[in-house]
Design goal:
This protein has 223 residues and is of the alpha/beta class. It has two domains: 2-119, Response regulator (Rossmann fold, 3-Layer(aba) Sandwich), CATH 3.40.50; 126-222, Winged helix-like DNA-binding domain superfamily/Winged helix DNA-binding domain (Arc Repressor Mutant, subunit A), CATH 1.10.10.10. 41% of the residues lie in helices and 22% in strands. The protein is built from eight helices and twelve strands. The strands form three sheets. A five-stranded parallel beta sheet has the order 2-1-3-4-5, with helices on both faces. Strands 9-8-7-6-12 form a five-stranded antiparallel beta sheet, covered by helices on one side. The chain has a two-stranded antiparallel sheet with strand order 10-11. The two termini are 20 Å apart.
C-alpha cells in the first residue's frame, strides 16, 4: 500500500522510510506541513504518518484542515508530544491513532495495516476470495493452500483490489496504489499485471468492467 510519511527529522524520516519499504509499503516522504496537506488532499495514499512539529504548518493544523475538507484517509500521528491533552486534542481533531516517539518501525507498520484494513471495512487481517487468501503482514498469497509467487507490484495490485472488493478501480486509481513519485509507468502496465495475476491465480478472480476498470467479487475476511 502507498502511504505518505510526513516527518521533518531527516535521520528519523530516512530510517522509517527504509524500514517501511522493507515491510512492503510504498512510501512517499515530505518534510513540511504545507506539502503534506497538498499531497493528502490529492487523495493518492492509503494512509499517512503525520508528525506534529512541522515547519510551514503544524501537523495538528494539517489534520484539522483535512478533516474539514472531508478527507477520510487514515492518519496515524507520530509525535514527541506525550501530554495527554495533546493526544486528546489530536483524536478529537481527527487522528485515527497516536504513536509517541521513539517508535518501533515494525509496530508502526502493524498499526498502519490495521488502520488501512479497517478503513475498508476489513476487521481481520487476511483477505479471502474463494480459495485465494492474501496476508498483508506476511505479504503472502495462497491459492487452495499453495503459495503463489507474485512480484511486488502484482501483490500490491491484488491487495488493492481485494481491499476494495466489489468496487471497480480504474487504471489510474490502481497506478496510484502501486507506483510512487518518480516511478515510470508504462501505458499498459496495469493490463500486464492483471494478465499475470490471472494466469497465476486461475479462475475469474479479477473481473474486467469494460471501459471502467477492474474489480474482484465480494469477499470475506478470515481470522
Amino acid at each position: 500500500m502507498r502511504i505518505l510519511l510526513v516527518e521533518d527529522d531527516l535521520l528519523l524520516g530516512d530510517g522509517l522510510r527504509a524500514r517501511l519499504r522493507q515491510l512492503g509499503f510504498l512510501v512517499d516522504w515530505v518534510q513540511d506541513g504545507e506539502a503534506a496537506e497538498r499531497e493528502l488532499i490529492a487523495g493518492q495514499h492509503a494512509a499517512a504518518v503525520l508528525d506534529l512539529g512541522l515547519p510551514r504548518k503544524d501537523g495538528m493544523d494539517v489534520l484539522a484542515a483535512l478533516r474539514r475538507a472531508g478527507m477520510t484517509i487514515p492518519i496515524l500521528v507520530l509525535t514527541a508530544r506525550d501530554a495527554v491533552a495533546d493526544r486528546i486534542r489530536g483524536l478529537d481533531v481527527g487522528a485515527d491513532d497516536f504513536v509517541i516517539k521513539p517508535v518501533d518501525a515494525d509496530e508502526l507498520a502493524a498499526r498502519l495495516r490495521a488502520l488501512i484494513r479497517r478503513s475498508h471495512g476489513r476487521p481481520q487481517e487476511r483477505l479471502v476470495i474463494g480459495n485465494v487468501v492474501l496476508d498483508p503482514a506476511a505479504r503472502v498469497v495462497e491459492r487452495g493452500g499453495v503459495q503463489i509467487d507474485l512480484s511486488l507490484r502484482e501483490f500490491d495490485l491484488l491487495h488493492a483490489l481485494m481491499l476494495n472488493c466489489g468496487r471497480v478501480l480504474s487504471r489510474e486509481q490502481l497506478e496510484a496504489h502501486i507506483y510512487g513519485w518518480g516511478q515510470e509507468v508504462e501505458s499498459n502496465a496495469i493490463e500486464v499485471h492483471v494478465h499475470h495475476l490471472r494466469r497465476k491465480l486461475g479462475g475469474p478472480v479479477i473481473q474486467t468492467v469494460r471501459g471502467v476498470g477492474y474489480r474482484v467479487p465480494g469477499a470475506g475476511s478470515s481470522a
